[in-house]
Amino acid sequence: MPRTTLALIAAALALSGCGPLGKVEQGRVIAYDPQTRQVTLIREAAAATRSGPGVLPPVTIEAPTDPNEMGPAPAAGGLLLLDAKNRRIVIYDHATQAFLTIPYTPLAERRNVAKSPGPPVVDRARKTITLYAAKDRTLITFGASDDLLAMPADTWRAGDVVRYYYKSPGQALRLMNVTRTDLSKATG
Question: Hey, what CATH class is 16-76+159-179 in?
Fold first, then answer.
């Protein structure tokens, strides 16, 4: 479409009283309170600057009041990156409010695991943690220090990815749970 046509469409929308367009953000949920509808997430970095698991500080938004403007409720978790190739894990540490990169040496690895066998397993007796790396389709067990074993259980679970539309920061007008929404089943 020629630029002049796009400019004319934008001008027509502005003159029609549609008001300013909103913005869209996306990130991984690290906390969610269904009572207050507060969603805290780590925003994704722009593709051109993507070098880590996201952008600090975390952002807290209020989910839409209309349930029709929100998909499935998001699950929260602290696991931001599980990189089986480079043998590193990145989590959001609520205590320090920072990313924590954990290099690991696997005690066991199962490759080509089609889907997650379930939630992460923190075995304090054996001092191990077992996680599923969906991107690599690998189930990994590694030895863990007492500090890692003492972290809350949701530290080792990946939170859902959500995308939200807003006009004023802090209030989502629409919220889509990217992780739990099957777009192939959407009807139009």
Answer: mainly beta
